[in-house]
Design a protein that fits this description.
With 335 residues, the chain is mainly alpha-helical. 57% of the residues lie in helices and 5% in strands. Helix 5 packs antiparallel against helix 6 and helix 8 packs antiparallel against helix 10.
Amino acid sequence: MNRESPEMATDLSLRNEESSLTTYQEAESLRHYLQAATSDSTRKAYRSAIRQFEKWGGRLPTDRNTVVRYLLAKADSLNARTLDVHLTAISQWHHHQSLIDPVRDPLVRKTMEGIRRTHGQPKRKAKALRMEHIAQMVKHLRRLPDSKKNFRDIALVLTGFFGAFRRSELVAIQVSDLAWEPEGLIIRLPRSKTDQQATGFARALPFGAENCCPATAIKAWMEAASVEDGPLFRPVNRWDQVHEKALNPGAINDLLKTLGKACQFDFVPDLSSHSFRRGLSTSAARERVDFELIKKQGGWKSDATVWEYIEEGQQLSNNATVILMEKMASIMLSP
């Protein structure tokens, strides 16, 4: 019985590679760079997948028939995309052990294709926050008694929306990443989800009207909480005391749901941090903002992704039926 995770399997393969290196320093350098090649979130997903496979009764290494039986057992209860992750984890385990990969077998692939066709569902998308939603949230926060937490939450909401930030990027911002200019604020981060090579990226937040300006809100938060270095966005406890550590990414989703309930939105279950990015792009599309400007502000690499957001934002206004209904209305008014 072999219960090692993909991460442990990688360690075993590393030992084999290390044996061919001449110095301890070379071996440690190799280990460091090979581990850096896979993100922490990916490793976490793979570990979870292997645990679920073993909980069902699977063992590693495994074979084609066992994998097929696992797919048949889980097809009704797990999303097809989740099963794809499980197959990838099993495949990677065998790959790192230099063993035959059962996931590559045609029967496994055909079975998975059938599951996708039978049980596949559209990916549930986060609700895009419109400008009026953000305005309502900020108004609600400003009506509350002044507190450090409220200053932080206003800055978070405005920065997340106008900067089209992912939650991981928001909590990663350091005071040292802020570059203040006469025209506004530039936030420079060394890495993002789609920037695994750490080339870095910048997000510009021009100064705007005080009641909706993210740069001004960040200044107000920093002054209220005396944040001078370290993480920009931090936890604030019930006594309005500011912690030194960075805010947990999950706290942003919790904040949005709390604000959504307070504002009596009817889409609270569909709110998440991605609502900021979808909201900025679709709102900009409704205002006919130039494609390249939308793409640049959100840091999107794919034109197709940006066009998807633009089409979503304009699906009711840029619609063939608008002209047809106007024409029909004039026909119906005629004698």
